[in-house]
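Following up on my earlier message about flavin mononucleotide. Here are the inputs again, as you asked, copied directly from the submission form:
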Amino acid sequence: MNISVIYYSMTGSVYRLAQEVVAGAEEAGATVRLRRVPELIPLDIIESNPAMKQAAEAQQAVEVAMLEDLVWADGIALGSPTRYGNMAAQLKNFLDQTGPLWAQGQLVGKAVGFFTGAQTMHGGHESTILTMSTFAYHHGMVIVPASYAIPEVGATATGGTPYGPSELGSKPELSDHERAIARAFGRRLAEVAGKLRG
Ligand SMILES: Cc1cc2nc3c(=O)[nH]c(=O)nc-3n(C[C@H](O)[C@H](O)[C@H](O)COP(=O)(O)O)c2cc1C
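Thanks, got it. Here's what our run produced:
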């Protein structure tokens, strides 16, 4: 099965989660594309902010997402840091270009799941994933959650929700729990995508 992991990350946390989702999907035998959506922040602002500059350089080698990456995939993972409890404009901008795919029903029946990052425990992990997911309803996709079937989701004081993987606190590295949840989610997404493909 083909899996596309498409994300936005300004300072690297969601990128680290995306890499774990990729690893999990590959463990399940999927062919995986990791793709970042185009940046909308002006280059001079990024250049003047050390954290943003470093994250941009670290992601330079990741190919930029195209609509074809959605069509190619049997399963899709979409990731974004929270912005006031919703996805970042960069990912929304990409998803807002999927009208032609919607009109032709090209994403109907594909597996899809969502992941995020937030600075604070109660700052929007769940709301971001849930608001991202409206995209899937309109396209007729099959939502794959993380769920408490992944044991680490029950851990306290860490990212990772039943709705999808998440990172808490913009840390330099993911916690072991966050890493385990993202990997298990990647495996699950690939397995469900394989079943739906039949
Ligand atoms: C404009 C803006 C709004 C944000 N809103 C929230 C928020 O509502 N709740 C929260 O916990 N973190 C918020 N954050 C923090 C980021 O979501 C958090 O640092 C994120 O995990 C970083 O992901 P990244 O390293 O992949 O860019 C916000 C950051 C920015 C720049």
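One observation from looking it over: The mean pLDDT is 97. Hope that helps, and feel free to reply on this thread.
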